[in-house]
């Protein structure tokens, strides 16, 4: 699957031109005309990277970035600023706010693609944190997924359910693990609840990913809620 990018810019012409170029470069692109629209979309979706203008009405890029960095789900999310402001002081303010890259307008779209690819490669190559009982996901990433799951659970009653698109047979233990993942519990908490090892829980979670065609705990819980698999 191609990386999912969120592009936030209040200039329609530039927004569509950048979107088209990024899509031609193989990315999936969601656009938003302002930070609030982008934030609303992110309550249901997690992009792999955000590209945002700075000079926007109501909520500017710096405020948007601050909002992202204060939310555990998005603390490690790569963010690129696009802006007409190219002064050194403005760039310093962006980096101090936690931006990963800063590209003053006008810019070469090939440079933007190169920056996006570089940030995505760096993110995917992040070393994993080693736990007491084997490899466990990066702590910041796991915390982000747990926060996203808890946000999903607050909207549980509003999620429309539909049959699964393919047959899924879960063992009783897989069902138990899925139910606890859907409660927002981490592997150590699940292991304690089921009186098993963290390594066994990790194996069950991996099997659940395989059986449901998902790639993260957040995707797994969303899939389970949408198809009535979590009990």
Automatic annotation (TrEMBL):
- InterPro entries given for it? CheY-like_superfamily, Sig_transdc_resp-reg_receiver, Tscrpt_reg_LuxR_C, WalR-like, WH-like_DNA-bd_sf
A single BP term in Gene Ontology: regulation of DNA-templated transcription
**Domain Response regulatory: residue ranges:** 4-120
SMART domains tied to this protein: HTH_LUXR, REC
Q: Which PANTHER family does the annotation name? A: REGULATOR OF RPOS, TRANSCRIPTIONAL REGULATORY PROTEIN TCTD
Query: PROSITE patterns in the record, alphabetically?
Result: HTH_LUXR_2, RESPONSE_REGULATORY
Organism annotation: Nostoc minutum NIES-26
Residue ranges constituting the HTH luxR-type domain according to the UniProt record:
163-228
Q: Which sequence positions carry the modification called 4-aspartylphosphate?
A: 53
Which taxonomic lineage is given here? Bacteria, Bacillati, Cyanobacteriota, Cyanophyceae, Nostocales
Name the UniProt key words of this record, in alphabetical order. DNA-binding, Phosphoprotein, Transcription, Transcription regulation, Two-component regulatory system
Name of the protein in question:
DNA-binding response regulator
What cellular-component terms does GO give this entry? Answer: cytosol; protein-DNA complex
Q: Which GO terms describe its molecular function?
A: phosphorelay response regulator activity; transcription cis-regulatory region binding
Q: Which CDD domains match?
A: LuxR_C_like, REC_Ycf29
Q: Name one Pfam family in it.
A: Response_reg
